[in-house]
């Protein structure tokens, strides 16, 4: 089907409504004392693309689980599919209706081939109980052709890129004659080009009459394909809005119920001496000839595309790797960082971009994660860890950063992304840093919670800390940094001052 | 009071991976122990006697000290398969010093020098394994397996496969005597348990061992010198092995390479029975100690009932399987309860 046809199909959906596919009304769901969904309504037409938006914990996942038959809704809900009422929706019934969910983790079998992943379901368990490899390959090939993509059928899924795995997951959904496909945060780990390719496929599905629900809170891309946006907040329906005319700012406001001050930081005269200076720093294959200074109270942004060498540079400043040449000067004294302990002792802290596996020891307690970097401060006269000092320190930082926790002994993994990031900040602030490196500090953090993180960062700068803010989201550095460096292929290629440029100009420069 | 107790037992605050509180773990294990004691005293008429408890008290320390040597590597997410041969080799070092210092006439000073040398050798064995695990990045199973084979070969070469015996009488008193009515080996075990609790609960090293046992890289990124901590894990394990080796020498008045070989996997079993997470990061000393008592009671009780020693070993395995099933059912029942409430 040609792109024009698809475009027409979508416009038709707006003009002369296509038949309705699914309609839910009065859907509520309680889990113990938590009202996960409260009288929510949702509908989608055949071939329509709808975006489902909301912060983590707003009920998106519960709604999907109700529609896919995993959770039965509370009595009083009505569900219509193809105009007919559906009672006792079970996972099997939902599948037979053609409802497919592609969860964010994709749930593929990494050690099996592409063909097996796509077509195993229909080719297993037949009579005789043998696997029909030929039929499987043929079916998988047919589906991939229908999607217009080429992936080697015999490759193991673990060898594929994230974007290719996503396509395999979509293909698997289509094998089961999908009519309604939910995609949970499908663009979260895709590059811009990969996102474009995925959206082209969504348009293709839509043109074939398959309805798609996109779950996302990053809307720039989704707004082009979706005709409507349904917003949930705290388990309640905020409303369903036409995509045309929706902006990211307005959507954020709908999702969080708050307005955010979208203004750049006022230009500041940096009269204070630099806290840290980097002079001609190079490390083969990672970054080259990097020089900059960060002053007390300054937030320096560092942006650029993935693979530009930003994290590699940060790891050297944190003492995890050693530069081949160049100097790091802190408060006028040259630093020789042999390990990150040296960096921490010098007053440098690093909030990793990978909170899951590097930022926090996930299964261990909130308390342990808060104090792991300052164990020296917890010892009593005998040189033993003092439980009371430990408790006092944990309570102090949880209070100062307003972290919402159940009990300090709970595993840190039980916290939301935003609160986890506050624990990471607490851990580092407890070390009393003078220079704080934030590497993509809002990955996996809700829109509302992001504002909270940046409030803390701004307070820290006001108190005189020097901050390096690394991010690949241009608006994030634009609105939160005093000065922004653009890094490309390991070099700093230009710098911006937010009050003297626009986001659009920066985006053009960086994605050119 | 309750919170005070739990703070002492668990000041670091880590709940076990399965979510039970430390007091719950201990309560459950004590209940199993009580049930065993009652069951055995009903079926074996002589079970509730001083003789039984004396025999348990003398047998427990050997396995107990080796279990402590296994515990810390398990907490760090590793394993030490070389514990028994490390103990044997440390025992050999003590025996060699005693022989060189006069055999049966060796003085107390010679004995103390021998003990120091034995502990130093245990620590050295641990240091080698620790350095290889921490800085070469080899898997602890492979490193300790290689060390085990090396030590066994070395020990058998030195002893020609025979016993080394003929020590001063006070050494035997150490292994078989009592102090204030308490068997000396048991006193050594209790001291070792307290030392391990102190290290794990109240030192920076202990804190770091739990953290790196869950996630080595994240712990390293937090500024902990994980290489040093991981090395110390095996040094501590090696030192505890040598204490076990010294106690074994004293109890049997001889050293033979291969003695206690079958204990290796039983120490792992005792740790898992005591709720140590097989993947590292979680586990406490006290529940492991209670598990040891449970295993020893089963062994001694069956002995009294006149069953074969091999059957006792089989029942140890069966106990662990049973306990795992009960724990799984228990947590499932609790989950069901949660679902019903929802």
Class from helix and strand fractions of chain A? alpha/beta
Radius of gyration of chain A: 26 Å
CATH class of the largest domain in chain A: Alpha Beta
- Tally of alpha and pi helices of chain A: 18
How big a fraction of the residues of chain B is strand? under 5%
Give the total of beta strands of chain A. Answer: 20
Q: What fraction, in percent, of the residue positions of chain B are helical?
A: over 70%
Query: How would a textbook summarize the main sheet of chain A?
Result: 6 strands, mixed
CATH superfamily of the largest domain in chain A: P-loop containing nucleotide triphosphate hydrolases
The largest pleated sheet of chain B is described as: 2 strands, antiparallel
The CATH architecture of the largest domain in chain A comes to: 3-Layer(aba) Sandwich
* Poorly predicted tracts of residues of chain A: 1-13
Question: Which structural class is indicated by helix and strand composition of chain B?
Answer: mainly alpha
InterPro entries (chain B): ABC_transp_permease
GO molecular function, one term (chain B): transmembrane transporter activity
Pfam family, one (chain B): BPD_transp_2
Keywords (chain B): Cell inner membrane, Cell membrane, Membrane, Transmembrane, Transmembrane helix, Transport
Could you characterize what this model shows?
The complex is a heterodimer of chains A (512) and B (342). Chain A has 512 residues and is an alpha/beta fold. Chain A folds into 4 domains: 3-98 and 179-256, Rossmann fold (3-Layer(aba) Sandwich); 110-176, no CATH class; 260-347 and 433-512, Rossmann fold (3-Layer(aba) Sandwich); 356-432, no CATH class. Chain A contains 18 helices and 20 strands. In chain A, strands 6-7-8-3-9-10 form a 6-stranded mixed β-sheet, sandwiched between helices. A 6-stranded mixed β-sheet of chain A has the order 16-17-18-13-19-20, with helices on both faces. In chain A, helix 5 crosses helix 6. The model of chain A is unreliable at 1-13 (pLDDT under 50). Chain B has a single domain, classed as ABC transporter involved in vitamin B12 uptake, BtuC (Orthogonal Bundle), CATH 1.10.3470. Chain B has 14 helices and 4 strands. In chain B, a hairpin with a 2-residue loop joins strand 2 (178-179) and strand 3 (182-183). The relative contact order of chain B is 0.18. Mean pLDDT of chain B is 84; it is low at 1-20 and 336-342. At the A-B interface, helix 11, helix 12 and helix 13 of A face helix 8, helix 9 and helix 10 of B.
């Amino acid at each position: 089907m040609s792109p024009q046809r698809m475009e027409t199909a979508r416009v038709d959906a707006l003009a002369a409504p296509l038949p309705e596919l699914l309609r839910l009304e009065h859907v509520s769901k309680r889990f113990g004392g938590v009202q996960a969904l409260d009288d929510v309504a949702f509908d989608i037409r055949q071939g329509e693309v709808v975006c489902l938006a909301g912060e983590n914990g707003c009920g998106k996942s519960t709604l999907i689980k109700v529609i896919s038959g995993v959770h039965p809704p509370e009595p009083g809900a009505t569900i219509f599919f193809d105009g007919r009422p559906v009672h006792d929706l079970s996972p099997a019934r939902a599948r037979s209706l053609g409802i497919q969910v592609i969860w964010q983790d994709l749930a593929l079998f990494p050690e099996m081939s592409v063909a097996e992943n796509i077509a195993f379901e229909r080719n297993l368990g037949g009579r005789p109980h043998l696997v029909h490899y030929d039929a499987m390959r043929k079916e998988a090939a047919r589906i991939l052709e229908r999607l217009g993509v080429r992936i080697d059928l015999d490759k193991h899924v673990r060898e594929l890129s994230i974007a290719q795995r996503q396509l395999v997951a979509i293909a698997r959904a289509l094998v089961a004659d999908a009519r309604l496909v939910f995609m949970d945060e499908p663009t979260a780990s895709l590059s811009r080009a990969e996102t474009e390719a995925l959206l082209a496929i969504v348009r293709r599905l839509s043109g074939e009459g398959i309805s798609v629900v996109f779950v996302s809170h990053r809307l720039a891309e989704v707004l082009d394909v979706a005709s409507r946006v349904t917003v949930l907040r705290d388990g309640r329906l905020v409303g369903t809005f036409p995509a045309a005319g929706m902006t990211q700012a307005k959507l954020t406001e709908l999702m969080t119920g708050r307005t955010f001050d979208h203004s750049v930081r006022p230009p500041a005269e940096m009269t204070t001496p630099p806290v840290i200076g980097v002079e001609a720093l190079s490390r083969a294959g990672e970054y080259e000839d990097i020089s900059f200074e960060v002053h007390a109270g300054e937030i320096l942004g560092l942006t650029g595309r993935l693979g530009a060498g930003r994290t590699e540079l940060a790891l050297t400043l944190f003492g995890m790797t050693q530069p081949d040449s160049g100097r790091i000067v802190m408060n006028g004294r040259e630093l020789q960082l042999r390990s990150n302990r040296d960096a921490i002792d010098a007053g440098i802290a690093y909030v990793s971009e990978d909170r899951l596996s590097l930022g926090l020891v996930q299964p261990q307690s909130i308390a342990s994660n808060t104090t792991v970097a300052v164990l020296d401060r917890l010892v009593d006269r005998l040189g033993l860890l003092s439980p009371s000092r430990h408790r006092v320190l944990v309570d102090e930082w949880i209070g100062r950063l307003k972290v919402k926790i159940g009990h300090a002994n709970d595993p840190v993994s039980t916290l939301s992304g935003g609160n986890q990031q506050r624990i990471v900040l607490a851990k580092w602030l407890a070390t009393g840093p003078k220079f704080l490196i934030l590497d993509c500090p809002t990955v996996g953090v809700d829109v509302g919670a992001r504002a909270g993180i940046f409030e803390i960062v701004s307070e820290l700068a006001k108190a005189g800390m020097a901050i390096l803010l690394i991010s690949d989201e241009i608006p994030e550095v634009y609105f939160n940094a005093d000065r922004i460096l653009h890094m490309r292929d390991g070099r700093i290629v230009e710098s911006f001052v937010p009050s003297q440029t626009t986001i659009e100009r920066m985006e053009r420069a960086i994605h050119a | 009071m309750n919170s005070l107790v739990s703070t002492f037992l668990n000041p670091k605050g880590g709940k076990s991976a399965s979510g039970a509180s430390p007091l719950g773990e201990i309560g459950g294990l004590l209940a199993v122990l009580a049930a065993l004691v009652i069951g055995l005293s009903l079926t074996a008429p002589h079970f509730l006697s001083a003789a039984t408890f004396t025999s348990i008290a003398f047998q427990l320390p050997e396995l107990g000290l080796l279990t402590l040597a296994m515990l810390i590597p398990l907490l760090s997410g590793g394993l030490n398969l070389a514990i028994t041969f490390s103990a044997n080799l440390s025992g050999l070092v003590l025996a060699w010093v005693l022989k060189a210092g006069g055999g049966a006439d060796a003085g107390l000073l010679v004995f103390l020098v021998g003990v120091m040398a034995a502990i130093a050798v245990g620590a050295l064995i641990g240091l080698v394994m620790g350095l290889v695990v921490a800085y070469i990045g080899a898997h602890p199973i492979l490193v300790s397996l290689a060390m085990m084979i090396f030590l066994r070969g070395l020990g058998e070469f030195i002893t020609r496969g025979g016993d080394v015996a003929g020590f001063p009488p006070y050494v035997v008193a150490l292994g078989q005597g009592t102090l204030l009515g308490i068997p000396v080996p048991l006193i050594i075990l209790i001291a070792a348990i307290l030392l391990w609790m102190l290290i794990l609960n109240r030192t920076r090293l202990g804190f770091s061992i739990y953290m790196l046992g869950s996630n080595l890289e994240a712990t390293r990124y937090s500024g902990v010198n994980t290489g040093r901590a991981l090395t110390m894990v095996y040094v501590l394990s090696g030192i505890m092995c040598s204490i076990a080796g010294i106690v074994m020498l004293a109890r049997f008045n001889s050293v033979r390479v291969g003695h206690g070989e079958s204990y290796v996997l039983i120490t792992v079993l005792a740790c898992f029975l005591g709720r140590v997470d097989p993947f590292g990061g979680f586990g406490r000393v006290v529940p492991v100690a209670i598990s040891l008592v449970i295993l020893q009671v089963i062994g001694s009780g069956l002995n009294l009932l006149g069953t074969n020693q091999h059957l006792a070993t089989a029942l140890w395995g069966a106990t662990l399987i049973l306990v795992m099933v009960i724990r799984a059912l228990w947590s499932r029942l609790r989950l069901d309860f949660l679902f019903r409430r929802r």
